[in-house]
Write a structure and sequence with these properties.
Layout lengths: L6 E3 L4 E2 L2 E2 L3 E2 L13 E4 L4 E4 L5 E4 L6 E4 L5 E8 L3 E3 L12 E3 L1 E7 L8 E6 L5 E5 L7 E10 L5 E9 L4 E10 L4 E8 L3 E10 L4 E10 L6 E6 L4 E2 L2 E2 L6 E11 L14 E3 L3 E5 L10 E10 L6 E7 L6 E7 L2 E6 L2 E6 L5 E12 L2 E8 L5 E4 L10 E4 L14 E9 L5 H8 L2
Antiparallel strand pairs: 1-4, 1-36, 2-3, 3-5, 5-26, 6-7, 8-9, 9-36, 10-25, 11-14, 12-13, 13-24, 14-21, 15-20, 15-24, 16-17, 16-21, 17-18, 19-20, 22-23, 26-35, 27-32, 27-36, 28-29, 28-35, 29-30, 30-31, 32-33, 33-34
């Protein structure tokens, strides 16, 4: 990094309620010591992908250092920040209870992505084998259905389905098939009206396990809404087709609001909510924030979605005075005092590096930003800069702990400079 940042976070050291910073100094070079460490709150347990390559639960208030990489192996740790979410799929690890099986055998006791014996083998005993659960689907809502799956025999994959209908027939629904032999999306489709597919994906979690997800937006409120799992990647007329002997292993079903599958939330007899990760720092830290000029650096993961998100925000804990990085409708923006500059439209899914500099000039100012070493984009503010910035929020909005717009992915690093780095330094700092 050019020169020395006034604040640097590379997630590594933590304890309950704290994320330790590597560097935290004032603009005068005074070391902030413990007052430069971030406060972390989350009122519930939550899961992460640990350094052993397994999904595990961490206690409330513990920062989630997530080691997940796209290959399903453990990599360098990153800070996982997510909004609150609820899993409304019941018995997410026990498919012999609230789940209804049709022409399907279920065998429990197989090793799961948590290294427990809670994985299940499902096998079609006849054509049309399926497993489903009654859920609530409401007109206008966007919902994501996800499940971990592993290749069985006599089948290349698994299909996830939203449907309105009976155990053997439905006139409206949407489905996505997944190739568990290659780790790729297969065919998708919808039948009838009212189910619009907005997103689907498959992620490698190692040891043969993939997390598959399908998101839809509802155009009406179904009379008999269900989610369904079928041990096949074959579709005919937009409907999965299973034959006797089709198998796959499954674990961890999840149904949640939104178009992105968040970290796994186990359930039993009732829906379970995971609270948001709140990562904040305020007070004496104002000395390490550039008040009339400065630079924000972040290395972060982006997951395609249309919701408004905050990556990092400097403020006086109000919405009046603030400098921040945010996304909406897959567009990446930087903002100072109400003036936005578009950095990427659209921003692609995956990891990125961003450097954002701001500098006051008279009663207005300029903004400069580079993403992944690209050309620097700039803009001019229409008014004066914030009078006093005293707080840093990572992965959330300014103001109170209940503010919305939480990030929903990993953050590998963040840094502040009390000076405006040059355009050449911005590009060099973000080169992948």
């Amino acid at each position: 990094m050019p020169a020395s940042p006034s604040l640097l976070i590379v997630p590594a050291r933590f304890k309950t309620g704290k994320l330790y910073t590597q560097i935290a100094t004032t603009s005068a070079g005074v070391v902030l010591a413990s007052s430069g460490d971030f406060n972390v709150t989350r009122g519930t347990t939550a899961t992460r992908f640990n350094s052993a390559g397994l999904i595990e639960s961490v206690a409330s208030g513990v920062p989630r250092l997530d080691y997940y990489t796209s290959g399903g192996t453990a990599g360098c740790p990153a800070l996982l920040v997510e909004p609150s979410a609820q899993n409304s799929a019941l018995q997410s690890e026990n498919f012999t209870t609230t789940w209804s099986a049709t022409s399907l055998n279920i065998t429990s006791g197989f090793t799961s992505p948590t290294n427990s014996n809670l994985g299940a083998l499902i096998e079609a005993s006849a054509a049309g084998g399926r497993l489903r659960q009654s859920v609530t689907l409401t007109s206008g809502a966007t919902l994501d259905f996800s499940c971990f799956a592993k290749l069985g025999t006599l089948s290349s994959g698994v299909s996830l389905v939203f449907q309105d209908g009976t155990a053997t027939n439905y006139t409206s629904g949407a489905c996505q098939a997944f190739r568990l032999d290659t780790g790729q999306l297969a065919s998708s489709g919808s039948t009838g009206a009212g189910f619009t597919v907005v997103r689907s994906g498959i992620e490698n979690y190692g040891n043969g396990w993939y997390r598959c997800n399908l998101a839809v937006t509802m155009g009406y409120t179904p009379a008999a809404p269900h989610i369904m799992i079928r041990p096949t990647a074959a579709l005919t007329s937009s409907i999965p087709v299973t034959v006797s002997g089709d198998t796959c292993y499954i674990f961890g079903a999840q149904l949640e609001t939104g178009s992105v599958a968040t970290s796994y939330i186990p359930t039993t007899t009732a829906p379970v909510t995971r609270n948001a990760d709140v990562v904040t720092l305020s007070g004496a830290v104002s000395g390490c924030i550039g008040q009339t000029e400065g630079t924000i650096y972040a290395e972060f993961e982006y997951k395609t979605n249309t919701a408004e998100r905050r990556l990092i925000a400097l403020s006086d804990n109000t919405t009046t005075n603030r400098v921040f990085v945010w996304t909406l409708n897959n567009i990446l923006y930087v903002q100072v005092q109400g003036t936005n500059v578009i950095v990427a439209n659209p921003i692609s899914a995956g990891y990125h590096k961003l450097a954002f500099a701001y500098q006051q000039s008279g009663v207005s100012g300029t903004l400069f930003a580079s993403l992944d070493g690209g050309a620097v984009v700039s803009g001019t503010t229409s008014g004066t800069f914030p009078a006093s910035l005293t707080a840093i929020n990572v992965g959330k909005s300014e103001a109170t702990a209940t503010s919305s717009f939480f990030w929903n992915a990993n953050i590998r690093a963040a840094a502040l400079y009390t000076t405006r780095l040059t355009n050449a330094e911005l590009a060099a700092l973000t080169t992948l």
